[in-house]
Amino acid sequence: MRHEFLDKHSERAGPLHRLDARAKTVAVALILLGLNVLRMPPAWLGAAAAGLLLAAVIASRLPLGYVFRRAAVVLPFAVIIGAFLPFTTEGRAVWYPAAFGYGALVTAEGLRLYATVISKAYLSLAYVILLLATTPFRALLRSLAWFRVPAFFLSLLSFTYRYIFVLVDEIERLQRAWTARYFGRRRAAQFRALGPAVGALFVRSYERAERVWAAMLSRGYDPNAV
Amino acid sequence: MHIPDGFLDAKTFITLDVVAVGFVAAAAARARRVLSERAVPLMAVLAAFIFAAQMLNFPVAGGTSGHFAGGALAAILLGPWAGGLVITLVLVIQALAFGDGGMLALGANVFNLAVVAPFVGYGAYSLLRKVFAGEAGRFVGAFAAAWLAVVAAASACAAELAIAGTVPFAVAFPAMVGAHALIGLGEGVITAAALAAIRASRPDLLELGRGGAA
After folding, report:
1. What is the CA radius of gyration of chain B?
2. In a mutagenesis test of the B interface, which of A24, A198, A213 is the best target, namely the one with the most B β-carbons within 10 Å?
């Protein structure tokens, strides 16, 4: 069960990978706050964040373009959600597009805010992707423990992470079984199969949880020693 | 429907981060009390189940697709607190391991999908089961609960984007609610069919969250 798409680069040995996870977590948290606390951060802040990101990506020795490409998934969303800002922000009018007798005022301030929202969303996601691609998940969890996140919640997270890989396997088996029975095109039939598949997956998951718990107990698991 | 960073202003995301931490603390304390040590493997495996089930896409309309969200199903099976905790785990893993949904916006996403959806879904399900007796009530209730949960979460999301000043409410609300009224139909059918499948093989599992105990 290898699911490389889930966690591909975090085990490499680049210079950023060797940095302490706590330091990276704090740095990324501060950068995200710096970018997002103000509605309209000054332009130099955005330029500095972009420059630092570029330097860090080059230093990380990740495959070129990996961070930038993965962060780009936020762009269509940002372009659509922000599309009203040029019209709803007050300021100096620069353009009055009209069609069918209706028009709306576009302001310079609105266009700037639109560009700011898109850049904030892109840069924030790029920093998170960079952090995740240079830090194994368990190191991230250990750093959260250092920041006093309760052990109970962290053991829930690490268990969940482990079982995601198992259950993604399970769902791929279900999907293989069902594509072997249908011949691709019958959308309605596929849709009808979804609910029972979810139900079957739940029962399998629950029974797996019971087995896991029995196995943990029989090996002397002490719930207070997480 | 995961809000990325960059769309919410400081007052909105900080408020919802605080609310989310409070919810998680209360839900975790409850899960520990009710389930004791079994809580960890049970919650974790079920969170992984929701994560895997969310990979099932279905076509909606006009080339877009929705995916199963699972908020109502988790709440119906486990009760709203444990169900919400399970969804929270999914959201935290999605943000922390895969960059899906913002870090600062995590509280907003937890509020919409792990608090609003499960509690609305559970409330609607309990109410409808009292109105419609028997097995029919279970499936009508599950369908309506899942639809309402999806629409309620989408409304909360639209309200947050409007409060943050990113999208005017008059646009965000009809757009989000309209799209999710459609996606919610898929969610409702899947939730009801999943319950039917569970009832056929392990009917005892339908009583796990009875009275919101877990």
Report:
1. 17
2. A198
Interchain CB distance below 8 Å, A200 and B38:
no
How many separate domains does chain B show? Answer: 1
Residue B81 sits in a domain whose CATH number is: 1.10.1760.20
Q: What's the token pair of residue A192?
A: 């009808």
| pTM to 2 decimal places | 0.90
User: What number of other Cβ atoms are within 10 A of residue A22's Cβ?
Assistant: 16
Q: Which of B34, B56, B100 is the mutation pick for testing A, counting most A CBs within 10 A?
A: B56
Residues of the domain holding B66 = 10-212
Q: Give the tens place of pLDDT for each residue, A91-111.
A: 888 877 777 767 778 888 899
Question: Taking CA atoms, what residue in A is nearest to B199?
Answer: A199
Could you tell me which residues come within 8 angstroms of residue A67 by beta carbon, excluding any fewer than 6 positions away?
A: A53, A57, A60, A126, A129, A130, A133
CA distance B46 to chain A (A): 6
In angstroms, the Cα distances linking A126 to A72, B2, B184 are 8, 16, 31
Structure-token pair, residue A35? 């970018």
**Interface predicted TM-score (ipTM):** 0.88
CA nearest to A164, candidates B94, B202, B40, B197: B94
B93 vs A37, A164, A216: nearest CB: A164
Q: Residue B100: how many CB atoms within 10 A of its CB? A: 17
pLDDT bucket at B214, cuts 50 / 70 / 90: very low
